[in-house]
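Long-time lurker, first post. I've been practising inverse folding by hand and with some scripts of my own, and I keep getting stuck on stretches where the structure tokens seem ambiguous. Below is the full token string for one chain I'm working on. Before anyone asks, I'm not after the true native sequence, just a reasonable design that respects the backbone. If someone could post their per-position residues I'd love to compare against what I wrote down in my notebook.
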């Protein structure tokens, strides 16, 4: 039973790290955007991390709720549209 708890904690830790990385990249992008600084580097960092997390979620390597995936994709679409301008 303890082994299952350890495995669950490892899984939760992995998911938390992935989501935290995406959130940090999004926060850095928004901070630069708010200060009207060049945002391309932060946008690309967020896009890269978000795409990796979505891919892992779709492949079953990372367990996310549909709402978490939707929110990441929504932010991804917004940022990608700004980069194409």
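-- Answer (accepted) --
I ran through it position by position. Result:
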């Amino acid at each position: 039973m303890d082994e299952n708890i350890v495995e669950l904690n490892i899984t939760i830790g992995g998911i938390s790290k992935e989501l935290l990385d995406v959130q940090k990249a999004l926060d850095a992008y928004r901070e630069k955007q708010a200060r009207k600084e060049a945002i391309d580097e932060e946008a690309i960092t967020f896009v890269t991390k978000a795409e990796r997390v979505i891919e892992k979620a779709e492949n079953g390597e990372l367990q996310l709720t549909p709402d978490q995936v939707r929110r990441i994709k929504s932010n991804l679409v917004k940022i990608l549209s700004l980069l194409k301008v």
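A couple of notes from the structure itself: Helices lie at 2-34, 40-58, 66-83. Residues 2-83 form one domain. Happy to go over any region you disagree with.
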